[in-house]
Design brief:
Oligomer: single chain
Helix content: over 70%
Largest sheet: none
Order of helices and strands: HHH
Number of strands: 0
């Protein structure tokens, strides 16, 4: 049985699955743990960012849609960086 699992993990999957990562399962569990333990904090970050965006829109009026989408993608990147840094600090 162990032979079959190792053969599947190290031989078959890398051959048949494009861009296969051995540690993908562990990464998925780590991401799940992050969401379970820090879910409230992540939600608070997203809510705060949404509030800041709403305040900016009120202050500056209607802004071009393309400029808004660029800023929102930049904001998402900032949030993801802060989440990652929070996770690394805990480790």
């Amino acid at each position: 049985m162990v032979f079959v699992k190792r053969f599947d993990e190290y031989i078959l999957r890398p051959i048949f699955i494009h861009r296969y990562e051995k540690d993908k399962r562990e990464k998925a569990f780590e991401f799940y743990d992050l969401l379970m333990h820090d879910g409230a904090r992540i939600r608070a970050l997203y809510q705060r960012q949404a509030e800041l965006e709403a305040e900016k829109e009120k202050a500056f009026g209607n802004i071009q849609h393309s400029a808004n989408s660029n800023r929102s993608s930049e904001n998402k990147e900032k949030i993801l960086r802060s989440i990652t840094s929070c996770r690394m600090q805990k480790s």
